[in-house]
């Protein structure tokens, strides 16, 4: 798992460009032990990655260890880390000095220069690209509820965006972002990627920003739709749901069950609705693609995954974690609740710093 975290000033709550100092103190990403820290496009953020895990308990430990390590290194640089998917206070981000990011800024202008968002990317191992593409084809309609669950970016440039996940909207400015059509085979997937590269629009395969894709570096499906979660416990829940989706989709493929051919425009609407509403109001149901109460949709997500979750011994843990999240709300709700009391976005950021390490 990869979590992107904001670097913030402990007094003002504004983002601060100290990623270079944080990473210089943390050592190499390729070290043998977790967590590993890596740069992102802006100097006001860092990425924390776990090692591959096989149990939720192991993953929970690594996520908390990664956040704590990032916090320790940030404090040595005079900053704090906050698991916020967008910066609540006005920000003027500064690009990391890597040549690739500079090229992106030259090519994509404000889309790159203003891209200060923090996501959560979940990798799940697959046996080969054929299984991976079969999974991608079958999880498409089930991804928007993950946006709703993880939504943790209500504020943008000092204003309430009126979205629970404005990160999903801002990220959608990239030309390759969003849901995909059915691929049908690994060969067809590679043909699409090759055709995208042949346009000369994107710099490399790393800019294939599908909601879910085959990883370039690992034998995994990489699900990329989620905001970074405010609470570490919600990150673990998200991982359990994603692993359940991948295994459920793989079983359906092996059983010869076809993928739902829901059109991409409908999937885009489902993602928009999840980004707007979070886990309150309505979502588009993954099976019927018509509005349904968010609570009913979440219940049906768990029902869809229940056989796999039960086999993995995770059904009870998922039920408990989801009930807790629904009772207290997602990160967007927590941010707005704090702001409604204090009236201060700086205080909201300080609260997020506390919750990041809880």
Automatic annotation (TrEMBL):
<keyword id="KW-0067">ATP-binding</keyword>
<keyword id="KW-0547">Nucleotide-binding</keyword>
<dbReference type="GO" id="GO:0042398">
    <property type="term" value="P:modified amino acid biosynthetic process"/>
</dbReference>
<comment type="similarity">
    <text>Belongs to the glutamate--cysteine ligase type 2 family. YbdK subfamily.</text>
</comment>
<comment type="function">
    <text>ATP-dependent carboxylate-amine ligase which exhibits weak glutamate--cysteine ligase activity.</text>
</comment>
<dbReference type="GO" id="GO:0004357">
    <property type="term" value="F:glutamate-cysteine ligase activity"/>
</dbReference>
<dbReference type="InterPro" id="IPR011793">
    <property type="entry name" value="YbdK"/>
</dbReference>
<dbReference type="InterPro" id="IPR050141">
    <property type="entry name" value="GCL_type2/YbdK_subfam"/>
</dbReference>
<dbReference type="InterPro" id="IPR014746">
    <property type="entry name" value="Gln_synth/guanido_kin_cat_dom"/>
</dbReference>
<dbReference type="InterPro" id="IPR006336">
    <property type="entry name" value="GCS2"/>
</dbReference>
<dbReference type="GO" id="GO:0005524">
    <property type="term" value="F:ATP binding"/>
</dbReference>
<protein>
    <recommendedName>
        <fullName>Putative glutamate--cysteine ligase 2</fullName>
        <ecNumber>6.3.2.2</ecNumber>
    </recommendedName>
</protein>
<dbReference type="Pfam" id="PF04107">
    <property type="entry name" value="GCS2"/>
</dbReference>
<keyword id="KW-0436">Ligase</keyword>
């Amino acid at each position: 798992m990869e979590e992107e975290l904001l670097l913030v000033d402990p007094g003002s709550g504004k983002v601060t460009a100290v990623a270079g100092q944080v990473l210089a103190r943390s050592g190499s990403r390729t070290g043998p032990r977790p967590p590993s820290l890596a740069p992102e496009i802006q100097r006001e953020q860092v990425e924390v990655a776990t090692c591959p895990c096989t149990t939720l308990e192991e993953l929970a430990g690594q996520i908390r260890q990664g956040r704590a390590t990032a916090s320790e290194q940030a404090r040595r640089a005079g900053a704090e880390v906050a698991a916020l998917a967008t910066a609540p206070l006005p920000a003027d981000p500064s690009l990391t000095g890597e040549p690739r990011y500079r090229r992106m800024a030259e090519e994509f202008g404000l889309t790159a220069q203003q891209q200060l968002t923090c996501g959560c990317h979940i990798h799940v191992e697959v046996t080969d690209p054929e299984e991976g593409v079969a999974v991608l084809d079958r999880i498409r309609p089930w991804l928007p509820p993950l946006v709703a669950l993880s939504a943790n970016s209500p504020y943008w440039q000092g204003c309430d965006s009126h979205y629970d996940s404005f990160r999903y909207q801002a990220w959608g400015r990239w030309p390759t972002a969003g849901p995909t059509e059915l691929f049908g085979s690994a060969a067809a997937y590679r043909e699409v990627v090759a055709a995208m590269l042949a346009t000369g629009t994107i710099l490399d395969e790393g800019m294939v920003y599908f909601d879910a894709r085959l990883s370039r570096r690992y034998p995994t499906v990489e699900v990329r739709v989620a905001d970074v979660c405010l609470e570490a416990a919600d990150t673990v829940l998200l991982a359990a749901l994603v692993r359940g989706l991948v295994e459920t989709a793989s079983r359906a493929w092996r059983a010869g069950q076809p993928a739902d051919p829901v059109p991409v425009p409908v999937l885009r609407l489902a993602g928009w609705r999840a980004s707007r509403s979070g886990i309150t109001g309505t979502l588009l149901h993954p099976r019927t693609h018509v509005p349904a109460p968010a609570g009913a949709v979440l219940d049906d997500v768990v029902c869809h995954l229940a056989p796999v979750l039960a086999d993995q011994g995770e059904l009870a843990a998922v039920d408990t974690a989801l009930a807790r999240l629904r009772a207290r709300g997602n990160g967007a709700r927590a941010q707005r609740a704090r702001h409604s009391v204090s009236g201060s976005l700086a205080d909201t950021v300080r609260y997020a710093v506390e919750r990041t390490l809880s």
